[in-house]
């Protein structure tokens, strides 16, 4: 495989990974951008996480979840700010949740399709039918309706738990940078990798209170853990695959502009065009707006001095965000490397190489130009919408 | 009504011409910024004087008002004879507005600013003179006076192929001038009257052959200036090489000298000959419209596309003039005004695009409507201008084209229908322009054109375009303002032709006459 890669543009990236170097070019500007944008992302994820956990626990099977974004309590002032759009775009968190549910990879999805989960659903249905005739009727008419709602709620809560960890990790990264403990891209990637590895075995659990009874939707004996059952499916669904349906750029499925195989989708955050053309996929502009509200002052001042100042702030945030997400992906690649990079066994190194190539193959059409681009002025024409892709990673 | 301000027409000449002289002679040590401010001041005074003229003007009178007459070179028949009517007043106003716009958008980095601003003021004054002149030789004098500064402005301040474009412009327009002079001199010789006044009574007594000969010279002369196919080839080159302010003036004002001449001298002085040639002129108009439109479709340079659209849109004026009834002549004036505003706006916007992206190439530009990294306001205004040009209701182009077609349909149904098709083609080529340059993903390229990061178009750059766009919408929503101002004069202009048609018998009546004063 490696013999055929001499002219492959991915080859330099593969070599960087195999030598333990970060994908993102090392520079003080990149460190400044990535740490700053991850700090604001951490603040936003904190809010997303709190809301998703609130939705999972307090809005479970609510037929009309009109006020589901008010996890801090409902008041006239908050309602006004919500309607006036002076708020966090929790819709973005829901898009990510839907992407995870729809793509459904990893251990969480496998559990949601298991007999065990079906029995939990029956238990929920049994309790609910006595108190909620509407739900009882719908459930008898459409037997898959309730399990699907519960799957959605489980994904919502699991994503909330995942983002709780990531939010703390990113805010901790910013603190470490302020304390001069982090001063390079390599250190950021290592920090993220260590954080992911440390949290890898954290159990993912979810229980709800139903009319005085506690029901474990994601019980402890399901054995779901942070890294393989939520983090990796999240990266797969949100960073890589995404969805081609939520933008105004139209794709003609009949003309096979959308791959037949869902696993070959590449509309995720790493592929998104930073220019707000409202391209397909999860609308990153919502997230950019949320991060804009929480930017560290020095990064905001830096953005104001570059590009078009305030006018193209979202574009610049998105470009920095993609650099940061390449660091996180880099951390995930390193964290899931089958063997140590200093392992002398050549068959182990081949396995490492295959592991890296599987990931890089997925990133072939991604915004790889962000890796070298210095300064938010630089933005080039993206690749054409891909019709075919490499194989999904086998982390 | 307040007492009339004395010598208004003369002051419209004096303000820009004296201003031009002062900038040229006294502006030696002044910075470009002060030269620009001074020129803006002069042109603001000029515009205020025009507004004063507008307020004093009696729109119910079809005759020339504010007459000023003084003997000058009596032996030559050159009298200083100025006046205004409902045909020339709106055109004066367009000149006032667009001259101000042209100076406002002129960059301070313009080389040789003293000569540049002085020449711009000179053009503005000369155009005023041509619209005010009530003596044939005086008109010719101002018509030629505007030529030299414009030639210099293209030849010195133009683009890469400016020498070629300026020389071509000079040759074409010089021939135009010669033909017009021949026409005027011939008229004087034929009528035996050397006073060169605009006197339809004398010219109408000439034989039809003489009329045809004299009018033919004038027709081709003005046809070059308008320009009509096949005399148009100087215009796209001149536009492409001229800087943005000059393009705005050229398209918005200077071409109107040709159509104004057509109405003022051909239609009114030689009604019999005009009536005879009218069917041929209508066909010529349709050919010009279709040629301009079809050629515009093939263009990839935005400026050339807008220039060819001018060839097409000026064809409507010839069509309306050919029908020569009150509605069509009013339509001709409206079309001149609408085209002045719309094409001025378009060249302004193309200028902003060229300044920020470094190119006007439609095969390169893409996605400029992008709200954060593109030119969203310029794009929005361009869409408005394109809609106006294509005759979408609610904007200036619709009113003008509707009036032209309404006036000419019964006289020349085939030519009118063909011109309508040309109007449809306007939508085609301008949608191509908008679709290529503004929609889609913003196309940027490292080290190329357009650059990766387009500079922001500042407020000073955008304000003139916003004002012109406001004018386009205002005229579209309230055409009655212009109609009230001009209807008496355009009806008077059509009167000789109408009387001849009536005399020729009912079978030759081209169109029913509608009492427009009741509109």
Description:
The complex is a heterodimer of chains A (395) and B (519). Chain A has 395 residues and is mainly α. Chain A has two domains: 1-20 and 341-395, no CATH class; 21-340, no CATH class. In chain A, 55% of the residues lie in helices and 3% in strands. Chain A contains 14 helices and two strands. Chain A has helices at residues 11-18, 28-58, 76-83, 90-103, 106-112, 115-131, 133-141, 145-178, 185-199, 226-241, 284-292, 297-305, 313-335, 346-362, and strands at 206-210, 213-218. In chain A, helix 1 crosses helix 14 (346-362) and helix 5 crosses helix 10 (226-241). The longest helix of chain A has 34 residues, at 145-178. The two termini of chain A are 18 Å apart. Residues 380-395 of chain A have low confidence and may be disordered. Chain B is 70% helix and 3% strand. Chain B has 19 helices and two strands. Chain B has helices at 8-26, 32-56, 88-104, 113-132, 136-145, 147-157, 162-191, 200-203, 208-225, 234-241, 244-269, 271-297, 302-323, 326-357, 376-389, 396-408, 413-437, 459-477, 480-504; strands spanning 65-73, 78-84. In chain B, strands 1-2 form a two-stranded antiparallel sheet. Residues 504-519 of chain B have low confidence and may be disordered. Classes of the chains: A mainly alpha (395), B mainly alpha (519). Chain A binds chain B through residues 273, 275-277, 307-309, 311-315, 377-382, and chain B through 367, 370-373, 440-446, 452-453, 456.
Strand percentage of chain A lies at under 5%
Secondary-structure element series of chain B: HHEEHHHHHHHHHHHHHHHHH
Structural class of chain A comes to mainly alpha
DSSP, total strands of chain A? 2
**Helix content class of chain B:** over 70%
Major β-sheet annotation of chain A: 2 strands, antiparallel
Question: Tell me, what's the shape of chain A?
Answer: globular
The largest pleated sheet of chain B is described as: 2 strands, antiparallel
How confident overall, as mean pLDDT of chain B?
Answer: 88
Number of helices of chain B: 19
Low-confidence stretches of chain B: 504-519
Q: Helical segment tally of chain A?
A: 14
Oligomer: heterodimer
Tally the beta strands of chain B: 2
What is the residue-averaged pLDDT of chain A?
Answer: 86
- Give, in spatial order, the strands making up the sheet with the most strands of chain A: 1-2
Low-confidence stretches of chain A: 380-395
- Name the structural class of chain B: mainly alpha
Strand content of chain B: under 5%
